[in-house]
Amino acid sequence: MSEENFFGLDLGEEMTQLSWYSPRHQAPESVSLSGKEQEFLFPTLLCYRAQAQEWLAGEDALRMAARGGELVRGLLGKLRRKEPVLVGEQSILPELLMERYLKSVLELLRLRCGAAKLTCMAVTAPGMDEELRTTLLQIFLTLGIKEEQLIFLNRTECFMYYTIHTKPELWTNDVALFDYDGEHFYYDRLSFARKRKPIAVTAEHMDFTGELEQQRQHGSDEERRAYWFYEMAMKQFHKQYITTVYVTGLGFEGGWAGDALKKLCNGRRVFQGQNLYTKGACYAARMIFLGLRKDYMFLFGDMITESIALCVYKDTRNDYLELAKVGTPYQQVHTKIRVILDATDELEFLVDDILKKESVHEVMILENLMQRENKTICLELELTYVDRDTPVVRVRDIGFIEKQSTARIWEQIL
Q1: Can you name the CATH fold of 157-299?
Q2: Secondary structure string (H, E, C) spanning the chain
Q3: Could you read off the pLDDT of 88-142 as tens digits, one per residue?
């Protein structure tokens, strides 16, 4: 182990995986928490042995359950639902159960990796949101891990970090990911804008769980499921240049999708495995901690793809006043400022979309603006977003000192 050690933890509903960044290979390596070579999936469950008042995790928990221990599954789901669990005659909070589980994971990590210092660990889980992040952070803090040693990512982010560390020819065009855990079915597609620096990596995330469930109602045989999967994939690939396809999740085990995957190989590279998220998280831990992300801009979910600025005259020179910044979730954009007009009835905005080659100037004409003395017209300008792609400017005439307001309002989509 080196002095700086970076880890990626994929905390799954059924299985957990851990990886460590190897300076020698300059890539993450999977860590076997069970101690068995090539066994990298660690069950996300606990078992309570009443006689010894002892908790066991992972494979040890399964072995103890076979000898009469009380097994507790679904730790992540119970944590999300804040659902207490009755173990023996005691009701236990899900936060305490997850704390016991993660304590075992960290102890096994130290056992497998020696007395290595944990520099930074990126943690991912299905459905990672702010509430789950906050809950997991408090658990890790209780276990002695500092906040500056932790990064929390959703799985789409892990996919992005993993992809940019593969061979460049694998992401010449778009890259697709199918994730099926046996219950939920997700599709992610990454696109790359190389016209400008930094390179913009954008993600589209889609949930096909409901569509798959409808298919199950007509029959659950593997042949029907394979047909649905192939047709759905080809529909998503229509008019899209897909260089590489990744397939992950325990739901793909058993070989039912084998023929469909062979067909998808036509003009594409297809990879199937279970360690994409943990390795993507490991890459992210290192890149973020060491500040190595300057060449990339990661945009996903509700993040806007442009920066918007108002052209102003300030301190004897022309300048730009930023109203919205690229990468901000559109729901968080709510900028309100006041400006004074100087011999004009126009407002000029600079819209710089990182996915486009050049920025553009948008002009807003304030029609029927009541004429007053120069520099006595004060406006209140508000910028919000209807959705990720629709910024709206709203301008209101509020008057100036003793000058009466007309209360007139103008709106324009930029």
Answers
A1: Nucleotidyltransferase; domain 5 (3.30.420)
A2: CCCCCEEEEEECCCEEEEEEEECCCCEEEEECCCCCCCCCCEECCEEEECCCCEEEEHHHHHHHHHCCCEEECCHHHHHHHCCCEEECCEEECHHHHHHHHHHHHHHHHHHHHCCCCCCEEEEECCCCCHHHHHHHHHHHHHCCCCHHHEEEECHHHHHHHHHHCCCHHHHCCEEEEEEECCCCEEEEEEEEECCCCCEEEEEEEEECHHHHHHHHHCCCCHHHHHHHHHHHHHHHHCCCCEEEEEEECHHHCCCCCHHHHHHHCCCCEEEECCCHHHHHHHHHHHHHHHCCCCCEEEECCCECCEEEEEEEEECCEEEEEEEECCCCEHHHCEEEEEEECCCCCEEEEEEEECCCCCCEEEEEECCCCCCCCCCCCEEEEEEEEEECCEEEEEEEECCECCECCCCCEEEEEC
A3: 778 889 999 999 999 999 888 887 766 568 899 999 999 899 999 999 999 999 9
